[in-house]
Each structure stands twice: as structure tokens, then as C-alpha cells.
Design a protein that fits this description.
elongated; single chain; six-stranded mixed beta sheet; alpha/beta; about 25% strand; about 350 residues; 13 strands; three-stranded antiparallel beta sheet
Length: about 350
């Protein structure tokens, strides 16, 4: 199959008629000026050896080089071979808790920051799979659909925060149900949900939802972030000041992580619970090792053609024509030397 890699350079061909018109205009003006200066016999005596056809020859060489340079820059290519690449993997949704409790600083710099850092490391480890991102509080939002655009996935993770969902509280059961809807029906037994949360659950239906999802082919791994120590939740106010999340009466609210809830979800979901307390990279690698055990499915096949370039077949004669044009003088020096005094 033939193609031009840079077809936009064919616009250079538009220069040919423009240059031709300019040259004819210049030549006519030059001839008229010479006729006003002296007759042809006198001009031949005053300028011996002048080759009147030489300017036309030089211009023709220049004009011929333009289409050759244009095609060389467009880089004509022929496909040498065609190969088909089949990708295998699973569908993975990363569920991130963005409720206000994730602003607690019982782990440094905060639960939210640690979650974001770990989720980024997880994306790097799970390259090759379809990855989506779900953000949740008491409601859920599928912020990144299943995709292999990992740069987009990371941008979603980097922006994750409580400001993205105004309704607060945590409903882990709803997060599991919403994530399950993000998977294709064909991906049953080839899917995983990785929940990152402090375990505060205001609904209590998470284990039931996890058990039901697992029966339909979903494995759920949970990542617990936070400690069992009471902690304040610091927020940035619009005026630049800092405050803490406050309860209905105005007193400062506190939060305590609940790893037991996360363990129950993982157990009901057929997966495993991991505390986010050490090296995020090592934990992400451990999760990948579990995910790799899941039977992979074949994703869409992609065909690629490799092309050979043939620009040099046009570039070489173009350079040769320009060198000839540059080397041609304006007059026959051998004839001119006979009239030198």
C-alpha cells in the first residue's frame, strides 16, 4: 500500500505557476529595458559571450527541482509488511474514596495524598490491562471509563479530591455496585475492583454487595489507608485560610479508619485486604501479582503496517539539478576572453 507520510508538503507545487508568472514578467521587463538601451547588434558587442538561453535553462532547472523536493519532503512510502498485534489482559477499576475523612493526616501527608500516590504506582504496575477510575463518597462517579490511555487515568487520579462530589459520607456498597456496571458483560471472570478507602462506611451494605459481585465474576481487593487513632480533617478555605471539617453543632469532627470493614469486603469479594502503610511501589507490585493470576481475555486485535521510505529517489535528482543550476555561469567565458583588452 502506498502513502505519503507528509502530504502537506505537496502544497509546494503551487509555487511552480507563481514562479513561472514572475519569471515571464521579469523577462519581458528586462527585454524591454534592453531594447530601450540599444539595438541587438550593439548589445552583442557590448556584452560578448552572453548566452540568452542561459537564464531560461537555469530557471527550468530550478523549476524542475521544486516538484522533486516536494515529493521528497512528502516522503512517499510503500508498506513492506503487515503485522497483527493481539493484546491480552483484564478489566480493572480503581475505586478511590474521596470523602472528607480522606483529608485526615494520621498518615503523612494525608490519607488522600497517600491514596493518589499509590493509585499512580498501581497504574504503572497494571500497564497492559484496561483501567478505569471510580471516585466515590456516599454516591459514586465513574470518572475514567475502562481504557488503555494511562496518561488520562493518571490525570484523573491526580485531580481526585472531596471537592468533586458535594454529597459527603461514604457508601462502599454503592461504590461496588456502580463499579460493577462499568464492566462489559463479556469480561465476567476477567475483571477486578481495587477499592482504596479508610473503611468508614455509613451504609453497612458493602460486604453484601461484594459477595453478590463476586458471584458474578468480580474479584475485589481492598486497600486500607489510615490508623485507628482519632484524627482531624483539615480543609483549605476559599480565602486561603485553613480550617477543619466540623460537625453539625460546629465542633471539630474527627475520623477513625476502620480496617475491619475493608477486610470483610475483600473476604466477601474473593480478593485480599492490604494496609497502605509502607512502600506504595511494593504494595502495587503485590497487587499486580494477584491480578496476574486472573485469567486474561483477548482484547481487540490491532494491525500495523511497516513502511519503507523512498524520498531519496526524489531528493537525489533535485539536489543534482540545483547543483547544475548553481554551477552555470551567465556567459560563455571562452568567447568573452577574446574581447578582453
Amino acid at each position: 500500500m502506498f502513502r505519503l507520510q507528509n502530504p502537506e508538503y505537496l502544497w509546494l507545487l503551487a509555487l511552480i505557476p507563481v514562479l513561472l508568472v514572475l519569471f515571464l514578467w521579469y523577462w519581458n521587463r528586462r527585454r524591454a529595458a534592453l531594447e530601450r538601451f540599444a539595438d541587438r547588434a550593439l548589445i552583442d558587442h557590448l556584452a560578448p559571450g552572453v548566452n540568452r538561453r542561459l537564464p531560461w535553462t537555469k530557471f527550468a532547472l530550478l523549476l524542475l527541482s521544486i516538484p522533486l523536493l516536494s515529493f521528497a519532503m512528502a516522503n512517499p512510502q510503500w508498506s513492506a509488511e503487515r503485522e497483527e498485534i493481539k493484546r491480552r489482559g483484564i478489566d480493572v477499576v480503581i475505586g478511590m474514596d474521596i470523602s472528607n475523612s480522606m483529608l485526615a493526616e494520621d498518615v503523612q501527608p494525608s490519607r488522600m495524598e497517600r491514596s493518589r500516590y499509590f493509585a499512580n504506582a498501581l497504574v504503572d504496575e497494571l500497564t497492559g490491562n484496561n483501567i478505569g477510575v471510580e471516585l466515590f463518597t456516599c454516591t459514586s462517579l465513574m470518572q475514567a471509563p475502562l481504557t488503555t490511555d494511562y496518561a488520562f487515568v493518571k490525570s484523573v487520579i491526580a485531580a481526585a479530591g472531596p471537592y468533586q462530589i458535594s454529597a459527603q459520607g461514604t457508601n462502599l456498597g454503592d461504590a461496588i455496585e456502580q463499579a460493577e456496571r462499568a464492566f462489559d458483560e463479556e469480561s465476567a471472570n476477567h475483571r477486578a475492583l481495587i477499592l482504596i478507602s479508610d473503611g468508614e462506611d455509613h451504609d453497612g451494605s458493602a460486604a453484601t454487595a461484594a459477595r453478590k459481585a463476586h458471584e458474578e465474576g468480580l474479584l475485589i481487593y481492598t486497600i486500607g489507608v489510615g490508623t485507628d487513632k482519632s484524627s482531624l480533617m483539615r480543609i483549605d478555605l476559599p480565602d486561603g485560610r485553613q480550617d477543619v471539617v466540623r460537625a453539625a453543632g460546629g465542633a471539630a469532627a474527627t475520623t477513625v479508619a476502620n480496617p475491619a470493614t475493608m477486610e470483610d469486603i475483600a473476604s466477601a469479594g474473593g480478593g485480599q485486604y492490604f494496609p497502605l502503610s509502607g512502600d506504595s511501589g511494593a504494595l502495587a507490585a503485590a497487587i499486580r501479582a494477584r491480578v496476574d493470576r486472573i485469567e486474561k481475555q483477548e482484547f481487540e486485535s490491532q494491525s500495523f503496517s511497516s513502511y519503507d521510505s523512498y524520498f531519496y529517489y526524489f531528493l537525489a535528482p533535485a539536489v543534482l539539478l540545483l547543483l547544475i543550476e548553481f554551477s552555470l555561469g551567465r556567459k560563455d567565458r571562452r568567447v568573452a576572453e577574446k574581447f578582453e583588452i
